[in-house]
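Lab notebook page, bench 4
Experiment: in silico fold of construct C2
Operator: M.H.
Input chain length: 616 residues
Purpose: comparison with the prior construct
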Amino acid sequence: MAENIKQPPRRRGPHGRGPQGPVEKAKDFRGTLKKLIAYISKYHGLLIFVAIITTASTIFNIMGPKVLGKATTEIFNGLISKIRGGDGIDFTKLGHIVLLLLGLYLFSMVMNYIQGLIMANIVQKIAFRMRGEISEKINRLPMNYFDKNSVGDVLSRITNDVDTLTQGLNQSVTQIISSVATLIGILIMMLTISPLMTLVALMLLPISIVGVAIIFTKSQKYFVAQQNFLGDVNGQIEENFGGHNVVKLFTREEIVLEEFNETNEKLYNSAWKAQFISGMTQPIMVFVGNLGYVGVVILGGYLSIKGVIEVGDIQSFIQYVRQFTQPIQQVAQISNMLQSTVAAAERVFGMLEEPDEKLIADNHTDKSVGDLKGNVSFSHVCFGYYPDKIILKDFSAEVKDGQKVAIVGPTGAGKTTLVKLLMRFYDLNSGDILIDGINVNEFDKAEVRNAFGMVLQDTWLFKGTIMENIRYGRLDATDEEVIAAAKAAHAHHFIQTLPGGYDMELNEEASNVSQGQKQLLTIARAILANKKLLILDEATSSVDTRTEVRIQKAMDNLMRGRTSFVIAHRLSTIRDADIIFVMKDGDIIEQGNHEELLAKNGFYAELYNSQYEQIA
């Protein structure tokens, strides 16, 4: 089995999942909002067009009450005229007013439809671009980022946070434009009717703004918590369903459910508090709006009696007052969506702004990895995932090209960590690793990794055909070369027995082949890659003993002439190694070949004999 590598701990709950304790408020709400505005400014042309259309739609919609007021005045004057013996209502003029009103509302509807269509296109482009950037970012992130963040949380940023962000943009951008245009337009229309009545209506505006601001401030931290706990819930779901067989095997369903319920309850508490507090804006705005209606009706009636305004103007003004509070209510509602949007954007930008793994060497060597022979030197190597917790302590060793190097030791001794350092998945705390006398830091990281072929105990196969999965080792390989690699790995026979053979499609988890067959396919992939240096981490641990013997012979042919590092727990498989490094607590305590180490009768001999005692 693969060793348990000491990694940076995460904040975990009582059973090891999900962060505990209060979630802090957004660190920089304004800063994140500015970043979001800068991000979407790429589409400024379309956004300006949307703003123009939205403004036009709003203006034509605003003109409606004024025209309707004219119709009301015409009806009122006609009725008065009829009572006094006149001609009564002028239906021709009234009909023209109604047609004008219908035309205004129809044009407003068409403009609204166009802006909705364009805005939907914009937000989908933003989502497409953002997911693409996150996907590229994942490939540039250093390994320690994934040690500190769960897979489910990373997935939540790509799915939930991007969805929340784009939905928020789709709903909030046009509403903000419409609300601002409505407020300005209605204010102008109200002033044309009666400046005095407008002053009364505006006296209540500061109350609304203060109320919305207070609620906005109080609810923001709960929206941030909601997005964070949503990521935790996704992490638990991904982890538990991914290991569902293990959960069932150890009958841990109740514990898993308890852990999920704890995190789900945190999500529930943060979500309902966010929605409840932000939802208080509606009743506050309605109450303030009703006070405005009372003041307008009283003052409007008085001014109408005095002959300052017409009867229809009162109706128009009341409608404008009703519409005047609606944009403020919309802004309050938008604030809820905006908080979720900014909270999601903060998580997305937080990931995008993580420092990239430095792939390019500062002092690049002119020598190509293709010219390397394979001499490897470890000189006083020290490394720890945390500076105060060193795993490898003053590690030194020399390996000549073409040698087969076995690395053995108990779990947690640092075997897998050593080969990860060799491939520069992590940088050293101190010391040097040299290949052919050249410090690996002088090569680009991609060059160093391209020099190695790897076969790990934890197999990785993707959804695709068996042919495509083996060809992943060398993308320009022909079908004949892929089949030859499969034969060398003793995988050709079982592949031919599968439905479709090399064209058989593996599912997402590659669960339609056995664990041993998966291992054979990854070995075939490494054989096809044909690299100068090899790393084999318990490569035959998932196959039966008979198959292991055949694979071992294939591996011997593969490793001939190549520098190979073999991590092994079954010591019987590395007896022919040129050098065996015996590791314990991050140090090489013994080294030599099999016979030399047995003759020393030290720690290696103890490990070797203990395995045969267990067999006996």
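Observations: The first strand starts at residue 376 and ends at 383. The chain has 20 helices and twelve strands.
Next step: discuss at group meeting.
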